[in-house]
Design goal:
The protein has one domain: Four Helix Bundle (Hemerythrin (Met), subunit A) (Up-down Bundle), CATH 1.20.120. The chain is 76% helix and 3% strand. It is built from six helices and two strands. It has a two-stranded antiparallel ribbon with strand order 1-2. A hairpin with a 2-residue loop joins β1 and β2. The N and C termini lie close together (10 Å). 20% of the residues are buried.
């Protein structure tokens, strides 16, 4: 129970930091936090589905987690597919690609603060939707597995 409270507090703090970053225009910080939350939500989905989030001692990448969710039978029922649609999963991957391009080419390509803002705003909205959808699925897995 204590670990759950720690997780809750850390998650709450990340959202507070994300909201502040968006409010005050710290868009790179927002993008980093958004990515971390996507990773966490995907890891939780796999955990509550009873699937590993690592392979050979290494954490699965965000894309590997998305692909597991796309293809594993535990994510194939209608309840889940209505929430984690192909379009939603594709949108997360597309946002990740934009984020990676921005981050990995930071020193090599010119960027505008507008571009960074757009990616941060896209991530913020996408995360809002993904968080809601993924939480309903996590709750269902918990209920089905009698987890409190």
């Amino acid at each position: 129970m204590e670990k759950n409270m720690e997780k809750y507090e850390a998650y709450k703090k990340m959202y507070e930091d994300l909201n502040k970053a968006m409010k005050y225009g710290f868009y790179y910080e927002a993008i980093f936090i958004e990515y971390a939350i996507f990773e966490d939500r995907l890891r939780s989905l796999l955990k509550y589905a009873g699937l590993p989030a690592e392979k050979k001692g290494r954490a699965l990448t965000l894309v590997q987690k998305l692909n597991t969710i796309r293809t594993n039978e535990k994510f194939c029922d209608n309840f889940i597919r209505e929430r984690l649609t192909s379009e939603l999963l594709d949108s997360v991957e597309e946002w990740k690609d934009k984020r990676n391009k921005l981050i990995h080419n930071l020193a090599n390509t010119p960027y505008t603060s507008d571009e960074v803002k757009v990616i941060a705003e896209e991530g913020y909205e996408l995360l809002r939707v993904f968080k809601s959808k993924s939480q309903s699925i996590i709750n269902r897995f918990k209920k089905n597995n009698n987890v409190i």
